[in-house]
C-alpha cells in the first residue's frame, strides 16, 4: 500500500471533504478523489460515504485510521532523522485565538523563521478552538485547558487584561471615577452567543452586562475602541500597538487569564514538534512580558 495514498486518506478523514483535504495537501479536489478511489480499489472496500455534511468514514475507513496514523508517525520520524543536521524545515501550522494571533504571533513567527529558514509557518486564527483530532493544525494555543481529547496540555503563560478607551472617546464623554460611571458609557465586547470559551466573558467583571458594539473578533473590538466608539476590555499586550489608548480604573478592573499549548498525544515523541513547541512557548512568554512591561511604565496610560 502506497504511503502517499494513506496520507491523502488521512487528510480527507480529517477535513471531511475533498476540497478541504486538497487545500491542506496542495492538490486539486479531483486529484484527491482519484487517489481515494485508487486506495479503495487496493483495499477492496469503500472508505468514505458521501453525505450532505461531507465525506464520512465508513466502518472500513474507520478501521484504517489507526494504521494510517502509525504510518504517518513512522514517515515523520524518518524525515526527522535524515534532516537532523540541516535544521528544522517543512510546515508548522498553529491554531491561535485571534488576540494572540494579531499581537503576539507575528513577532514570535519572525523569530522562528529567522532561527529555521526552511520552516513554513502557518498561523490559523479562528474564533474557536482548533480541532487537533482532525489535524486542523500541528499544535494550538487555547485560553483554557480542554476537558476531553487525546492531547498533551502545557501551560504557557498568564496574561492580563484591563478596561481601556481611546483618549478621543474619553475627551468627549463624562469622566470615569468608579464602576458606577460605566453605565453612562458605550461598551464594546464579544457577541454573547458567540463566546466560545467562558474565559472570554470579560464584561461581566465590569458590572455592565450588555455592549452596544460587539464582534466575535478581538481585532475588530480593538479597532472599534481605537476609533473612539466606546470602552472595552483589552489585552495588556495589545495596548502598546494603539497610540492614545488609556487604561481605565486599573485598581478596580484587572483580569488575569492563561494561554495553554495543546498538542496531539500521538506527537509527544516527535523531536521536531517538541523543539518547535518549546520555541513557540518561549517566544509567547517573552513577548507577553515585553509588551506588558510597557503598559504601566513611568509614562503610563492610566485614565
Uncertain segments are none
> In angstroms, what is the radius of gyration?
23 Å
Largest sheet: 9 strands, mixed
What is the N-to-C order of secondary-structure elements (H for helix, E for strand)?
Answer: HHHEEHEHHEEEHEEHEEEH
Q: What is the distance, rounded to the nearest whole angstrom, between the alpha carbons of the first and last residues? A: 67 Å
Report strand %: 15-25%
Number of domains: 3
Beta-strand segment tally: 11
What is the CATH superfamily label of the largest domain? Periplasmic binding protein-like II
The CATH architecture category of the largest domain equals 3-Layer(aba) Sandwich
Q: Describe the global form.
A: elongated
**SSE class:** alpha/beta
What integer is the average pLDDT?
88
Report the CATH topology name of the largest domain: D-Maltodextrin-Binding Protein, domain 2
Provide a count of the helices: 9
What is the name of the CATH class of the largest domain?
Alpha Beta
Residue share in helix: 25-40%
InterPro entries: LTTR, LysR_HTH_N, LysR_subst-bd, WH-like_DNA-bd_sf, WH_DNA-bd_sf
Keywords: DNA-binding, Transcription, Transcription regulation
Domain HTH lysR-type: 1-58
Protein name: LysR family transcriptional regulator
Amino acid at each position: 500500500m502506497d504511503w502517499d495514498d494513506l496520507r491523502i486518506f488521512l487528510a480527507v478523514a480529517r477535513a471531511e471533504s475533498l476540497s478541504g483535504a486538497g487545500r491542506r495537501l496542495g492538490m486539486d479536489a479531483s486529484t484527491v478523489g482519484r487517489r481515494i478511489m485508487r486506495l479503495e480499489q487496493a483495499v477492496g472496500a469503500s472508505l468514505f460515504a458521501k453525505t450532505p455534511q461531507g465525506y464520512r468514514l465508513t466502518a472500513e475507513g474507520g478501521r484504517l485510521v489507526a494504521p494510517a496514523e502509525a504510518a504517518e508517525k513512522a514517515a515523520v520520524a524518518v524525515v526527522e532523522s535524515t534532516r537532523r543536521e540541516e535544521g528544522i524545515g517543512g510546515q508548522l501550522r498553529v491554531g491561535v485565538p485571534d488576540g494572540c494571533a494579531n499581537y503576539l504571533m507575528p513577532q514570535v513567527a519572525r523569530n522562528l523563521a529567522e532561527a529555521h529558514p526552511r520552516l513554513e509557518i502557518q498561523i490559523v486564527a479562528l474564533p474557536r478552538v482548533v480541532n487537533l483530532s482532525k489535524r486542523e493544525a500541528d499544535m494550538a494555543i487555547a485560553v483554557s485547558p480542554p476537558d476531553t481529547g487525546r492531547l498533551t496540555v502545557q501551560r504557557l503563560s498568564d496574561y492580563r487584561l484591563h478596561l481601556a478607551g481611546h483618549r478621543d472617546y474619553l475627551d468627549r464623554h463624562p469622566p470615569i471615577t468608579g464602576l458606577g460611571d460605566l453605565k453612562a458609557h458605550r461598551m464594546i465586547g464579544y457577541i454573547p452567543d458567540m463566546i466560545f470559551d467562558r474565559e472570554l466573558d470579560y464584561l461581566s467583571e465590569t458590572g455592565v452586562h450588555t455592549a452596544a458594539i460587539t464582534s466575535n473578533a478581538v481585532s475588530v473590538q480593538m479597532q472599534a475602541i481605537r476609533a473612539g466608539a466606546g470602552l472595552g476590555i483589552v489585552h495588556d499586550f495589545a495596548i502598546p500597538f494603539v497610540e492614545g489608548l488609556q487604561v481605565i480604573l486599573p485598581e478596580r478592573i484587572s483580569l488575569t487569564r492563561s494561554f495553554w499549548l495543546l498538542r496531539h498525544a500521538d506527537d509527544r515523541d516527535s523531536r521536531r514538534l517538541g523543539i518547535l513547541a518549546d520555541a513557540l512557548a518561549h517566544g509567547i512568554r517573552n513577548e507577553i512580558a515585553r509588551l506588558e512591561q510597557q503598559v504601566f511604565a513611568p509614562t503610563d496610560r492610566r485614565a
